[in-house]
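Holo prediction. Input below; ligand is 2-acetamido-2-deoxy-beta-D-glucopyranose.
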Amino acid sequence: MRLKTSLLKESKHILFVVMEHICVGWTTADELYSCSEDHQILKWNLLTSETSLIVKLPEEIYPTDLHWFPKTVGVKKQAQAEIFVLTSTDGKFHLTSKMGRIEKSVEAHKGAVLAGRWNYDGTALITAGEDGQIKIWSKSGMLRSTLASQGSPVYSVAWGPDSDRILYTSGRQLIIKPLQPSAKIIQWKAHDGVILKVDWNSVNDLILSGGEDCKYKVWDSFGHLLHCSLSHDYPVTSLSWAPDGEVFAVGSFNTLRLCDKTGWSYALEKPNTGSVFSLAWSADGTQLAGACGNGHVIFAHVVEQHWEWKNFVITLTKRRTMQVRNVLNDAVDLLEFRDRVIKASLAHGHLVVATSLQCYVYKNWNTPLIFDLKEGTVSLILQAEKHFLLVDGAGLYTFSYEGRLISSPKFPGMRADILNAQSVSLSNDTIAIRDKSDEKVILLFDALTGKALGDGKPLTHKQEVLEIALDQCGPSTDRKIALIDKNRDLYLTTVRHLGREPKICKIGSMVHSMAWNDAANILCGIQDNQLTVWYYPSVVFTDKELLPKTLCIKDGSEFRRAPQVLNYIGTKVTLRQGDGSLVYSSVLPFPALLHEYSISARWEDALRLCCYAKDQSLWACLAGMAMANRELTTAEMAYAAIGEVRALDTVFLASLFPSKESSLAHMLLFSGQVQEAEAAFLQAGLIYQAIQVNIDLYNWERALELAVKHKTHVDTVLAYREKFLQKFGRKETNKRFLQYSEGVLDWEKIQAKIEMELSKERERAANTSVRSSVASRR
Ligand SMILES: *[C@@H]1O[C@H](CO)[C@@H](O)[C@H](O)[C@H]1NC(C)=O
Ligand SMILES: *[C@@H]1O[C@H](CO)[C@@H](O)[C@H](O)[C@H]1NC(C)=O
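Structure of the complex:
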């Protein structure tokens, strides 16, 4: 990926000596405004390549910063969206119309106003001054409050993603201050020289800073350093996040850099610009403009972006052209688009490309399906095998690969503009979205209807969730979601749980990135800097002690700093290392094959595969898969192969249980599914055993409740309860139990009753097997 830049031969702004104040801001992706010390406001039209003078400002106004009022999401033409704030060295800011008319000038600071920024919904404006003050203003320019006051100039400010905090510079320090007065301020030393520019991205919540120490840095919003650049030759004078938070640009003297969100540099340009004082991306993220110290405005767009899938490599060679290369035979196809490419995605045998006006879907390279888009700012494309999801400023839309709109989930407080691939996930049947207003919550939707799943209750985790991913295979009733939380723990849970509280089980820790395989429910992730493959993560629901035995941990010594999983297609995992280089790691095909055998109940084939592969982790997977499918014979053999005596006993015992129903219930108990086991016993009419399950777990109230409801074994519960209390030298205090206590309990009578239920079960089972053997002889 690199920047393709363009610069006019002559600067349109009139250069004095060296400009310090020159700034830029986009109105649309094709139109930019710039203004500088020459008092001119210029408009740049990229379609016609024309530059026109909008207005010459009064002589006393030397502009310092320019920021357009935010476009209201989903509403295109709105009069109020057509103003911008212009700050100036005389201590004022000016609300200025698109025609260049100053609607209002406000005395704001002593000395120059150095920065002015609208918040995300345009309800507030923040200004920062040479006088060290930071002030908040209403939309119409009324002073709301002075947020901070310090001894040194504030060079740069940025709003937090929810417009509830601001970030600003204070010499070598960075400060995050919440608007709410009582909330905690975060302050830290960030650079070894005065900090000149900051930016904060609303999608990834990451902070950029750059300054006179000639470095740029990436921080999380708690002030933890994520990346520090090498020292440049000149101060870093500007930086700016692309709106989707995937890349950012950095400006310095005769220097323009394009960087990945993790900090490493894609490309370096050395244009003849002087210092780049201000950088701005168009809302669709396709264009970058820089205001240069020599009076020029530099334009750039990103090219040579790559997408890979199986044997295809696709490259954006120009703004409207892609090259498709088949690496098997080196065949090359060119794809041409009418408009600029904004986003693309390649997976599941389809290429989806969003341009500024249309969506193209390719299955082969010569006949794309094309349909029009409502908003021209697609910020995210996700693909599943059956359909894909487009996200733009206004919402989320599921489309079939035939171009039919399938659904469009909505929820209260929806902000589609801040969703990214970590906070949304798509499978054939489900859409999952991490809720921004409460990051512990994951909203789940049916992909076909767009309605909330089940009873509409979202999934709630105990910690804030950073990343989510739905598995891609198997029936929708078994759909699972993996999540990484704030503590970097990895959890797995089901998404369709039929009203029961879902079990959220931990399957890993120190996990930094993850991806599901496209063809089997195998998960890979970076755990403690090592590539870990969870061959059968769902085993945690049947026998969690098997989980560690089903992992494949690849030695991480080959990876450099902080690798990220990009995808996991077939047997190939693609990783991006901390320095930006790609590495590939391959996973054996056997686990995927084993999944296939298990889904189609081909247990003989599964056993043969495990014998052949001689891999303990495969045997462990098979044991788990067989248990989950109540396939006792296979489970026994698999457990034996990995020397698991603990489970062997249970499997063996379970197979001894007289009836199928009770062995099923025991299997459920073994895997910790108590409620399910109880339900299975009750369904089979094995009331005593259902009660005993609860007695064994000291679920006294439930045991009594069952006994009372089924009018049997009340004395059994009371007898066990009495024994339990005696053991701990305690007296009965529970009202329910006192109510039912009825003097002396007869253990002999109880034993007899228990024996009766058990023998009845054996007899019934015997009758069944006699019947079936008679039937088979006929
Ligand atoms: C997903 O949808 C595709 C296309 O309809 C289908 O071929 C595939 O079997 C589905 N996968 C699952 C796991 O349901
Ligand atoms: C088993 O069969 C015998 C004889 O046919 C019958 O008397 C008995 O009730 C049956 N028991 C059960 C539990 O079905």
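The chain is about 20% helix and 40% strand. That is the main takeaway for now.
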